[in-house]
Amino acid sequence: MAVSLHRLSADCELIVKPPILLDGGMGQELIRRGANRKSDMWAAWALVYDPELVTAVHTDYVAAGVDVLTTNTYSTFADRLEDVGLGDRTEELTRLAGRLAREVADNAGRDVMVAASLPPLRHSYNPDPDATYEELLDEYSEMVGYLAESVDLFLPETMGALFEAQAAVDAARESGRTVWVSFTLQGSPGPHLLDGTSFAEAVASIDADAYLINCCPPEEISSALPILRAVTNRPVGVYANGFREMPLGYRRREGDPLPPARTDMGTDRYAQIVLEWVDAGADIVGGCCEIGPDHIARIRQVLPQPYSDL
Predict the structure, then answer these.
(1) Which residues fall within 8 angstroms of residue 301, CB to CB, at 6 or more apart?
(2) 195-210 pLDDT, tens per residue?
C-alpha cells in the first residue's frame, strides 16, 4: 500500500495515490454504544463483558472504508488494569483485542491492516511519566509480544514524552513489524511534545516508519503539520479528537473529568479539515476521540481517488 500522494513511475509519469485512512476513536464510541460509563475502564470493560461491542465498532469502521483498524488496547496494560482488579488478565485481554481486530480485518473482503495501539503507560497527556525508560521498555515489550501474532504494524500513540515514545518504538521494533509513532500536543505550549521536545528533535531521535500527531484539537494539528512535514521525508499522519482542549498534566485516572465534546466538529466540517491536512502533506489521516464511523465514512467520500496517466 502506497502512502505517498505523489510519486514518479519508472517512466516519469506522475502517479497520484490517496492517503491511508485510519479509523476513528474506540473508547468514546464504546461509551456512545452503551459501555459502562461509570467505570474509567470502559474500553477494557467492553473486552470483559461485551467483546461483540468491540467487534461491532471495528466492523462499522470497515464499512466506513478504512484502510487500518486500531486494536482496542489503549487500556489493557498491567499498570492500568491493576487499578480495577484485572491485572491478572492483562495478557488475556490484550490478546483478545488483537484477535477481534484481526478477525474483522480478515473478513473485510479487501485489504485492511491492523495497527496495535501502544498507549502511554502511566497517564495520557503526561509530560513526565513516572517510570524509567527501562521499566517502560519492559512493559511495552510484553504488550508487543501479546499482539505480534495479530497485527500488521505497531502504533505507539498519544505520546507526550520523548523517552516514553522511544521505549514504545524500541519495544515494537523487536517484533520486526512496521512501526509508526504518534505524538500528542494536548495542552502543549506550541508545536512541541508535552515535555518540551521539538518535532525536529523527536523525529531525529526516533527511528519510525511514519510520524503522526493525534488526540489534540484540529487547530493545533493544522499549525504543527507543516513543521512535521518539513523535518522528515518519511510518511506523516494526523488524527484529531473532538474534545475541548485538555490542560497539560490531565490525569483521568486520578479523577480529572473529560472535557466536553465540541459541537462544531460534524462530519462535513471534520472532513473538510482532513482535506486541508492532505493538501498540507499528510499521508495518513483519521480520527481520535469523539470522531466516529460517520466521520470516517464522510472522509472516505471526499478523499482523492488514485489515478495515473496525467
Answers:
(1) 271
(2) 999 999 999 999 999 9
